[in-house]
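SAMPLE LOG
Freezer: B-3
Tube label: C17
Construct: single chain, 100 aa
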Amino acid sequence: MEYEIGPNEPVSTAVVRAVSAVQGREPCSLQPLADAVDPGALDALFAPQCGGTPRVGGRLSFVFNGCHVTVDNGEYLTLQLLEDRSCDERDEEYLDGRFR
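STRUCTURE (predicted):
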């Protein structure tokens, strides 16, 4: 699933909304995002630079509530349920150090 992050939507909020949508659950029924990643640091990572200049580029991937989440440039999320991924794909990413 792909999710476009709104222009004024914090990345942390977008992650919770997207994961709850893909799993068909209420956001409050998910584990706290802080169990996977610091929400404030996630928002700051993709926030505009001093003076309001947008950050360009950047990608972060992590696992949250059974989903592999990738944030691209603070504009898009890509979600994939872990159960949908083959064991070989997960093992390969783990060995490459992209998946912890």
